[in-house]
Design a protein that fits this description.
Elements lengths: L15 H18 L2 H24 L4 H6 L13 H8 L8 H32 L5 H10 L5 H14 L6 H25 L3 H9 L4 H12 L1 H16 L3 H7 L8 H11 L4 H30 L7
Helix pairs in contact: 4-14, 5-8, 5-11, 5-13, 6-8, 8-11, 8-12, 9-10, 11-14, 13-14
Length: 310
């Protein structure tokens, strides 16, 4: 009698075996990522990525003669000097090139450019998530689709519009531009986070007589702090490091120029003085690093909002 080996039937999509197969695939992927070889590759990539930054950091504490005669690795153990940072902040004898003034301009630009989109996007996200109105879904899709529009397309029309209304070259042109460019992504992220809030919390607030304003500020807003912090970090880094929007909107006006515009212009004046250029670069890094380290615990949690729902 011939032995016939039975062919296992294909498991349906929702069966226990299918779920087990998916879990096994996820488990294999997790093991591959957490393997010692993956850790070694990640460490090597991190070291290679960090070496140029370390070189720039060491260069910022060396004098010009040492920079011209030896490589940056020769200065790992000294001698060091803080005169580079003092000269960069004071403009190296030229007050118009003092980075301290441009540093203040960057702070004046970045704070409203972060707070305005956070406020407007949180209000819009609450409306899309919990208020029923005509064409709500279509409007949300339209807002989300705006993310694919390159900001370079809108820069020239916005610049002309701001000049027509008398805002050209002012802080308002930068605040409104950064707010408009940030709203689509902010609304999308905050909307996904708000949809994970249990509806029973909002219903309980309505039973107690709370309206939408009270529910938003007393119930929803405290619960979306991780998402607000995550997008706040993202927007802060974008605005602080921006050069294109500032250069277009301000037209090279030095009185309102941020730190990035100053460094871009001063490279021509300090091109042969690497000790000043490197010091100026690290002056521009200080604030973003402090902000990121202070709020990093919220960053991944806020960006992954909605990823585990279902």
């Amino acid at each position: 009698m011939t032995n016939i080996t039975p062919i296992p039937a294909q498991l349906p999509e929702g069966s226990k075996g299918a779920r087990f197969g998916r879990k096994s695939a996820v488990g294999d992927a997790a093991k591959a990522v957490s393997s010692p070889w993956a850790s070694i590759v990640a460490i090597v990539m991190a070291i290679l990525w960090t070496i140029p930054t370390i070189g720039l950091f060491v260069t910022s504490f060396r004098n010009q003669s040492d920079i011209n005669n030896t490589g940056w690795w020769h200065g790992l153990f000294g001698p060091f000097t803080l005169d580079n940072y003092k000269q960069a902040l004071n403009g190296a004898g030229n007050p118009t090139n003092a980075l301290s003034n441009f540093f203040v301009n960057s702070i004046v630009i970045v704070i409203p450019s972060v707070l305005l989109p956070l406020l407007l996007a949180s209000l819009a996200a609450y409306a899309f998530a919990w208020i029923k109105f005509p064409f709500r879904d279509w409007l949300f899709v339209g807002v989300f689709a705006l993310q694919i529009v390159p900001l370079q397309i809108a820069l020239v029309p916005l610049t002309l519009m701001f000049q027509d209304v008398g805002l050209g070259g002012s802080y308002w042109s930068l605040w409104l531009s950064h707010t408009a460019f940030a709203l689509p992504l902010a609304v999308y992220l905050l909307h996904n986070f708000m949809k994970e809030i249990p509806g029973s919390l909002l219903e309980a607030a309505r039973v107690d007589g709370a309206g939408h304003v009270r529910i938003f500020f007393q119930v929803v807003l405290p619960l979306i702090v991780p998402a607000l912090a995550a997008f706040g970090i993202f927007q802060f880094l974008w605005v602080w490091n921006d050069l294109l929007v500032a250069l277009t909107m301000l037209g090279g006006a030095p009185e309102n120029a941020p730190l990035t515009m100053a460094l871009n212009q001063l490279q021509g004046n300090w091109g042969s003085q690497w000790y000043l250029v490197s010091a100026g670069a690290f002056i521009s890094i200080i604030i973003p690093v402090v902000v990121f380290l202070a709020l990093q615990r919220y960053f991944v949690r806020g960006l992954l909002a909605g990823g585990t729902k279902g």
